[in-house]
């Protein structure tokens, strides 16, 4: 009986400490692995030169985008092989009067593969260019101008696999 009582009264032992430490670090490692998986599989955002300046300009850009969206002008981007096409129309479906269209291709993370592409006008409201676009995710900023005034400025996110490379 006295041996049982001494074992019960031993209190916090080295084994208890080992169990506490293993449990603690298992939880920390599990949380870190989970967060790393979420970070690598979710949308990463955009790369900007200066985050402070970008944050200050956000509200003005958002208001301009809302005004353009309210105008009813809409664009449709398509990629077929190495041909990039863009069609821009008014609210009623008629071709919009636009002089030039510029596409800025940006990778979601990093800017090593980013490039700019000026499209040629094929007919009223339709533009195209030939350029090989590497496979993967792209954010394409589309700027349409008439007499140097921006008529439409939009951004689309694409995966080139969706266009049947």
UniProtKB/TrEMBL annotation:
<dbReference type="Pfam" id="PF05751">
    <property type="entry name" value="FixH"/>
</dbReference>
<keyword id="KW-1133">Transmembrane helix</keyword>
<dbReference type="InterPro" id="IPR018037">
    <property type="entry name" value="FixH_proteobacterial"/>
</dbReference>
<keyword id="KW-0812">Transmembrane</keyword>
<protein>
    <submittedName>
        <fullName>FixH family protein</fullName>
    </submittedName>
</protein>
<dbReference type="InterPro" id="IPR008620">
    <property type="entry name" value="FixH"/>
</dbReference>
<keyword id="KW-0472">Membrane</keyword>
<feature type="transmembrane region" description="Helical">
    <location>
        <begin position="18"/>
        <end position="39"/>
    </location>
</feature>
């Amino acid at each position: 009986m006295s041996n049982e009582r001494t074992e019960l009264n031993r209190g916090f032992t080295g084994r208890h400490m080992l169990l506490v430490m293993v449990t603690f670090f298992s939880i920390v490692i599990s949380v870190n692995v989970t967060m790393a998986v979420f970070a690598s599989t979710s949308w990463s955002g955009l790369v900007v030169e200066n985050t402070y300046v970008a944050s200050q300009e956000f509200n003005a850009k958002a208001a301009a985008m809302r005004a353009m969206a309210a105008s009813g002008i809409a664009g449709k981007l398509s990629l077929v092989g190495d041909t990039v096409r863009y069609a821009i129309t008014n609210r009623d479906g008629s071709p919009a009067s636009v002089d030039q269209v510029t596409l800025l291709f940006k990778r979601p993370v990093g800017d090593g593969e980013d490039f700019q592409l000026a499209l040629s006008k094929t007919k009223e409201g339709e533009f195209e260019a030939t350029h090989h676009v590497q496979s993967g995710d792209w954010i394409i900023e589309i700027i349409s101008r008439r007499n140097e005034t921006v008529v439409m400025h939009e951004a689309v996110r694409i995966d080139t696999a969706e266009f049947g490379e």
